[in-house]
């Protein structure tokens, strides 16, 4: 199973003037916690001040689009939003419906709020895949994708925020 990251950034980014909101689902807590921690770690490495990083929760991944949009309206001044969720395929069509709805919802929200929304939704076939992508399945090829989302947030906010 290949697990790759964002790769090298195209330039040096300084996020010291950015405000970042991380909105995350509460399902699959172990994986979510690792992804959120990885995202915050990378944001700080790119000079985003701790006091300018806000973390808020929603019940599940399906609620991420509404959560991001509602938070952006209620709390002004954020440059970028990172939506983090984890979906693990089960034996019903639920996975496909929620994956598709959440993906489309997040794409729509960023156009409506005119701010970048980083797509931090893991869509995994197994729990093992989710653990690997959160960097917490020892003995496997691991990479914490939360770190990639933190880097993407800084890049997108600096390049494209209004």
From TrEMBL:
Per UniProt, the keywords (alphabetical) are: Riboflavin biosynthesis, Transferase
Reply yes or no: does the keyword Chloroplast apply: no
What CDD domains does the database record attribute to this sequence?
A: Lumazine_synthase-I (cd09209)
Which catalytic reaction applies to this protein?
Answer: (2S)-2-hydroxy-3-oxobutyl phosphate + 5-amino-6-(D-ribitylamino)uracil = 6,7-dimethyl-8-(1-D-ribityl)lumazine + phosphate + 2 H2O + H(+)
Which ranges does the record mark as transmembrane?
none
Please name the NCBIfam families in this protein's record.
lumazine-synth
Similarity field: Belongs to the DMRL synthase family.
What is this protein for, i.e. what is its function? Catalyzes the formation of 6,7-dimethyl-8-ribityllumazine by condensation of 5-amino-6-(D-ribitylamino)uracil with 3,4-dihydroxy-2-butanone 4-phosphate. This is the penultimate step in the biosynthesis of riboflavin.
* The protein's name: 6,7-dimethyl-8-ribityllumazine synthase
């Amino acid at each position: 199973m290949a697990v790759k990251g964002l790769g090298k950034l195209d330039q040096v980014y300084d996020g010291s003037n950015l405000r970042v909101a991380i909105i995350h689902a509460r399902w699959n807590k172990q994986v979510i916690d690792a992804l959120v921690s990885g995202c915050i770690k990378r944001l700080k490495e790119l000079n985003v001040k701790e006091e300018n990083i806000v973390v808020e929760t929603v019940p599940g991944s399906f609620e991420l689009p509404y959560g991001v949009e509602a938070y952006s309206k209620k709390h002004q001044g954020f440059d970028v939003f990172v939506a983090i969720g984890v979906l693990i395929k089960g034996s019903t069509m639920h996975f496909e419906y929620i994956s598709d709805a959440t993906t489309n919802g997040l794409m729509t929200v960023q156009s409506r709020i005119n701010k970048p929304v980083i797509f931090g939704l893991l869509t995994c076939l197994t729990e093992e895949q989710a653990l690997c992508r959160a960097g917490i399945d020892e003995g496997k090829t691991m990479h914490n994708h939360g770190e990639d989302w933190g880097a993407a947030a800084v890049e997108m906010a600096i390049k494209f925020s209004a």
